[in-house]
Write a structure and sequence with these properties.
Layout (H helix, E strand, L loop, with lengths): L1 E5 L2 H18 L4 E4 L6 H12 L9 E4 L1 E4 L9 H8 L11 E2 L8 H15 L3 E4 L21 E4 L2 H7 L12 E4 L2 H5 L4 E5 L5 H9 L17 E6 H5 L1
Parallel strand pairs: 1-10, 2-3, 2-6, 3-5, 6-9, 9-10
Antiparallel strand pairs: 4-8, 7-8
Helix pairs in contact: 1-2
The structure holds 2-amino-2-deoxy-6-O-phosphono-alpha-D-glucopyranose (GLP).
Length: about 240
């Protein structure tokens, strides 16, 4: 695992954007695996700036997002589809038809998850961006005795509902379920970058860097991937 410790959030965001830029430059028709949450917002801002300055071209890029609340409408401002539109897609020349977020309105969530896995597997993710939950979740793969390989419908843990309630008017409004890419499609990505910012992620980051695989910190499975770069700030690294 490569580790890049940055001075602060801005430097972390810049470094992450530079890595995406490198992949897109080498392979203009690449497939990006994208994440939501507050952590990658600064990276998306920089990607938009690189597009505006002519450094980046998204016209042939495809993207697959990690997860989506369930049930939720794509037009709901709390949905991850809405988040992606507002934080990236609305501002760059990506073809909206080439952007994919699990369908939070699917009548049959299991069929939706199977189809999503097949598509991701066909596309092949060139670089997967991950954040990390305070409890060590990636996507919405929550701590548990057993982790699920395939993309699946999952119940959110109390700590995730509480952590994500900051984006909602009240904790009662946070959906209790989500569709999430499982650990298998994440691990099949050619390259993974995981962004970790802030003191409250220190414990999860330490567990990740310990090299011990522990299902109670799902991110630790990344230790088995051959090309992971951890990009963190000093606050997360030092605690
Ligand atoms: C969310 C998302 C994750 C994200 C994590 C951390 O619940 N499902 O993909 O990495 O929580 O979010 P934040 O970056 O806001 O701390």
């Amino acid at each position: 695992m490569n580790i890049k410790v940055c001075r602060n959030y801005d430097e972390m965001s810049e470094k992450a954007a530079r890595m995406i830029c490198a992949v897109m430059t080498l392979k203009p028709d690449c497939t990006l695996g994208l994440a939501t949450g507050s952590t990658p917002v600064g990276m998306y801002k920089r990607l938009i700036a690189m597009y505006e300055s002519g450094e980046l071209d998204f016209s042939r890029v495809r993207s697959y997002n990690l997860d989506e609340y369930y049930p939720i409408k794509p037009t709901d401002p709390q949905s991850y589809r809405y988040f992606m539109n507002v934080n990236l897609f609305d501002h760059v020349n990506i073809d909206r038809a080439n952007t994919h977020v699990p369908n939070g309105e699917a009548a049959d969530p299991d069929a939706e998850c199977r189809a999503y896995d097949e598509e991701v597997s066909r596309a092949g993710i060139d670089i997967q961006v991950l954040g990390i939950g305070r409890n060590g979740h990636i996507g919405f793969n929550e701590p548990s005795d057993r982790l699920t390989a395939a993309t699946h419908l999952t119940a959110l843990s109390e700590s995730t509902i509480e952590a994500n309630s900051r984006f909602f008017a009240s904790p009662e409004e946070v959906p209790h379920h989500a569709l999430t890419m499982g650990l298998a499609p994440i691990m099949k990505s050619k390259r993974i970058i995981i962004l970790v910012s802030g003191k409250d992620k220190h414990d999860a980051l330490s567990a990740l860097l310990s090299g011990v695989i522990d299902t109670s910190v799902p991110a630790t499975v990344l230790n088995m991937h051959p090309d992971v770069t951890v990009i963190c700030d000093e606050a997360a690294y030092n605690g």
